[in-house]
Amino acid sequence: MSLQNGKSLIINSPGASSGNVFVKSIELNESPYKKYHITHDLITSGVTLDFEMSAE
Q: pTM for this structure?
C-alpha cells in the first residue's frame, strides 16, 4: 500500500487460509516482532510485515 508520505506498507501472509487463521509469528522488516500492537508512527515510517499463520 502506498502511503501519502511516499512510503509503503507491505503486508505478507503467504500461509493464510481458511484453516490457518492464527498468527504464529510476525516479522517487521525481516526482524522478529514480539509486541502485541503496531503504532501509527511505525506504519507511516514505511514497513514490511510478514505474518506466519497457523491452524493452532
A: 0.84
